[in-house]
Specification:
Blueprint: E1 6-11, H1 17-26, H2 29-36, E2 40-45, H3 47-62, H4 81-99, H5 103-106, E3 107-113, H6 120-128, H7 131-134, E4 137-143, H8 146-156, H9 172-179, H10 184-188, E5 194-197, E6 200-208, H11 217-237
Parallel strand pairs: 1-3, 1-4, 2-3, 4-6
Antiparallel strand pairs: 5-6
């Protein structure tokens, strides 16, 4: 195979994940395959599922029904919903393989999500993400500090397009409550290149987005080529 099978694109909110995907979409397929080991790809992102729950409750309230998923101040009523959204990703991926048994002969699955808290990443990968997604997968983690995540989250937010992948944002209070703590360093500490997740070796690299490169295609291209090239070499040894 001359391309990544599954690439997890991870990081704090507004770290630059969506900008990376936007950049890849705008890169011609032959160049994308040669430089980044990604040809055709399908994106699996949990944000649309998350946002839809807020919209559903708004519409339920509008027609005189009770909210189901969220509180009036827009927190989820049950923390297990974060697992539900990952299960939605698992299901979407299984449907993609069902509908196209040759999916990975032609496409890379790009899986994007973010999790915070003391066990956010560990719980997501060890307890929820399916083994089908993990088999043959690799991880690109985009690093920014919490403070930089907050700054970039404020900058990108467009109140006219809160459902937009590139323009959605969170209030500062939610950022602090949900994402100030991150267990990425602890989660990735056991090995500098390959994580053992549910008994499956999953290579990873970290793209440092400080100073920022995801805001400038001229900077992002070389940074992605370097880090994904390194990830490809690790993946080929696993």
């Amino acid at each position: 195979m001359d391309r990544f099978k599954t690439l997890f694109l991870l990081g704090r909110p507004a770290a630059g994940k969506s900008e990376v995907i936007d950049f890849l979409k705008k890169t011609p397929v032959p160049e994308r395959l040669e430089k980044y080991h990604i040809g055709e790809f399908k994106e699996f992102d949990d944000f649309p599922y998350i946002w839809e729950r807020f919209e559903d409750d708004m519409l339920l309230e509008k027609v005189g029904m009770e909210r189901v998923w969220t509180t009036p101040d827009l927190y989820f009523k049950d923390e297990r919903l974060w697992d539900f959204f990952l299960e939605k990703l698992n299901l979407a991926y299984s449907k993609a393989l069902r509908d196209d048994p040759r999916f990975h002969e032609e496409k890379t699955a790009v899986v994007e999500f973010s999790r915070g808290g003391e066990r956010g990443w560990r719980h997501a990968f060890h307890d929820v993400v399916s083994k089908d997604l993990l088999e043959g997968a690799a991880i690109l983690y985009i690093h920014v500090t919490y403070e930089e995540s907050v700054r970039k989250n404020r900058r990108r937010f467009n109140p006219e397009r809160p459902d937009s992948i590139l323009e959605h944002g969170l209030p500062d209070e939610k950022m602090e409550r949900l994402y100030k703590l991150s267990d990425w360093e602890e989660f990735s500490a056991p090995h500098p290149e390959v994580l053992e997740i549910q008994g499956i070796p999953v290579p990873y690299v970290v793209l440092n987005n400080m100073p920022e490169v995801t805001d400038d295609p001229a900077k992002l291209g070389p940074a992605l080529e370097r880090e994904l090239g390194r990830l490809w070499k690790i993946r080929s040894r696993v």
